[in-house]
Amino acid sequence: SSVKMRQDGFAFKASFTEFYERFIIVIPTGYDPSLVLMPKPGSNYKELCKLLLKSLQDQALTLKDPEDTIQFGDSCVFIKHKTIQAFEVLRKDKLMDMDRAAVLLQAT
Prior knowledge:
Layout: H1 2-7, E1 12-15, H2 16-23, H3 45-59, H4 66-69, E2 70-72, E3 76-79, H5 81-107
Antiparallel strand pairs: 1-3, 2-3
């Protein structure tokens, strides 16, 4: 249950779709052809989240045992605090890069 997951230290909970939409921007272009900004209708978001998490783990090299910090429920992903913090740092860096690129485009 959600309560048990929280008691076990899994501070972050999101539906597969929410998680995917929040973190897809972090994935390098060409990492995996199935990881696209707008998946086809009817896509299996649980499987897409697993692919997405693999890339996030590759980028956040500090993660040791992903099984201990990430759990999949029937409709949600649960992530421990330290792991979601690492993912949020990656996301923040990507958003800052996107802002810089937009400023450069506007300046030309």
